[in-house]
Structure formats: C-alpha cells, structure tokens
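Dear Dr. L.,

I hope this message finds you well. Following up on our conversation about the binding site, I have prepared a predicted three-dimensional model of the protein together with succinic acid. For your records, I am including the exact sequence and ligand specification that went into the calculation, followed by the structure tokens. Please feel free to forward this to your student if that is useful.
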Amino acid sequence: MITEKGEASEPLAPTLRVGGAPLWRGLLDPAAQAAMLTEVRAVMAAAPPVHLRTPRGRPLSVAMTAAGSLGWTSGPGGYSYVPRHPSGVPWPPLPAPLAALWARLLPQARAPDSCLVNVYGEGARMGMHQDRDEADLAQPVLSVSLGDAALFRVGGNRRGGPTESVWLASGDVLALAGPARLAFHGVDRIRFGSSALVPGGGRINLTLRVAG
Ligand code: SIN
Ligand code: FE2
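The resulting structure of the complex is given below.
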C-alpha cells in the first residue's frame, strides 16, 4: 500500500491481472486517496470538467478535464491531444504525487505528459474503446480509481472478442501496458454512492499517459 507520503509499505507486485493488465488492488490507502483527491480538485477548479461530444455529436456521459502539457479532446474534428482546455487556458500542471506513482510502478517508461480526469456521475459509463491517440503506443497508460466502484471491462486487441470484468474500487491502480496496452476496455457502470471519498458521490478516474 502507498501512504499519503508516497511511501510503499510492501513490495509493489500487482495483485492480479485482468485481461493481461496488471491491477494493484487498494494501492492507495485512504489518506493517499484523499491527498490525490485534493490534487485533482485543484485541477478541476482551474480546468472544469466538460461533457465533450463524440465526432458524431453525441455528448459523453463522463465529464472530462486534464492536467499536464496535453489533454484529450473530442469533437467534429475527431479525437486528439491538445495543449489547452476548451476555455483557452493551458491545462494545469500534472500533480507531483501522480508523477511519483508512475515512476514507482513503471520505472522503464518515459515520464507522463498528460493526466486525463474522467468524472463519472450517476449513470455515467464509457463504451469499449482502445487508447490509441497517444504518439507512442509502446508507452503504458496508468489508471487510478477514486470514489465510487466501477465495473471495468477489458478485452483483447480486437473489438468484439471475449472480455473480463472487474470491479475497480477507490485506491485501485491498473496499467494498460505490454500486451494489454491496446486492449479494448470500458466502464459498464458505476455503483453510485458506494464510496464516501467524493462528496456527493461519483467516481473520478485518472489516467496518466505519454501523449506527445
Ligand atoms: C478510460 O478508459 O479512459 C477510463 C477508464 C476508467 O474510467 O476506468
Ligand atoms: Fe481508455
């Protein structure tokens, strides 16, 4: 487990693999989760989450923002990484505790330049997709779950193949890395109100990436 000070009290071998993706269950202890949430709330204050639209014009049920030099966007022009929030402000700096977590779990990887913040309110979900808008698809994606539990589904590198599902709880950390880097994945549903971490309920998922 990782404490608020970023200290690991035990070896950091993953607890299990889901569809090949390493999952560290409960890696962040409650104080570390609260500290992460404080960082993320500062990001959300500077760059409020927005409901982007798909290229076809459908609003996403998940509200999104980002930190770091690049954040993800979606709209009529397709999907891409851009240096600014839709309001025109640059994305806030990537929080240091997240960069430290990445360095500890993924010491071989390049430093992340992006942290996407996905905010799931009641009923929000995310359809099955691959993360492939990053410039270097050999670099991993690291996902940190905060707040309400989510039913996360992982498949293979082909749409429509067999999938595995797992409930991700607050403090769980998962990597899309190695053979699972391009795995299709999504969030079928959240258990709204299942965690007391986020005031008023909801889930916040952070994904650290090497986008540029
Ligand atoms: C994502 O695929 O970008 C988010 C996954 C999650 O919310 O757990
Ligand atoms: Fe994704």
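In brief: The chain has one domain: 16-209.

With kind regards,
A. P.
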